[in-house]
Amino acid sequence: MPTATAQIRRRRFAGALTCAWLSLTAPACVAGALPMADEVLVVKSERRLYLIHDGQPFKSYKVLLGLNPLGPKEREGDFRTPEGHYLLDGRNAASDFFLSLHVSYPNAQDAARAHRRGWSTGGAIMIHGLPNLPRRAVNYYQTSDWTDGCIALTNDDMLEVWLLTRPNTPLEIRQ
Questions:
Q1: CATH number of the domain located at residue range(s) 4-174 in this protein
Q2: Which of 134, 166, 168 is nearest to 152 (CA)?
Q3: b/e per residue, 10-37, with b = 16+ CB within 10 A?
Q4: 32-78 pLDDT, tens per residue?
Q5: What are the boundaries of each domain within the chain?
Q6: pLDDT at position 128 over 70
Q7: What are phi and psi for residue 152, nearest 5 degrees?
Q8: Confidence band of 17 (pLDDT split at 50, 70, 90)
Q9: What is the pLDDT of residue 33?
Q10: What sign for the dihedral angle of Cα 134, 139, 140, 145?
């Protein structure tokens, strides 16, 4: 029986292959039906992520947030999802979750606020799918705020967001 490390490596490799294949085949299908997003908006109070093109939302997805979803992220370990203006500045097909888009948190305002209080801002905020190795029942990940501060989608929704965004797409997160 393979070790847990070997299983993780295989899943990450399979995920990378899947994304490479999809990047070659699916964009033509998806792009023909839907525009590419030129902005992403997350409204935390609605638990919704909106893909926006030419100022108009064209797709909407249910999201789940950090364990402590009220208010902006202030410091590392507060389990809050940030609020403000960011970029989707990185893509990881081999993350611990089904795909992930890196959020450019902290921005200058986040860093200044944390510095004034002597706190570490934290980082590694992502938009991602479900864990590749879940520790709980799938229903938990679909009904409860469960992340450390990230924005979570179902895997199907994450794949669509992945395909309909480009690197450095602007992201606004509001309460």
A1: 2.40.440.10
A2: 134
A3: eebeebeeebeebeeeeeeebeeeeeeb
A4: 589 999 999 999 999 999 999 999 999 999 999 999 999 999 999 99
A5: 4-174
A6: yes
A7: -110, 140
A8: very low
A9: 82
A10: positive
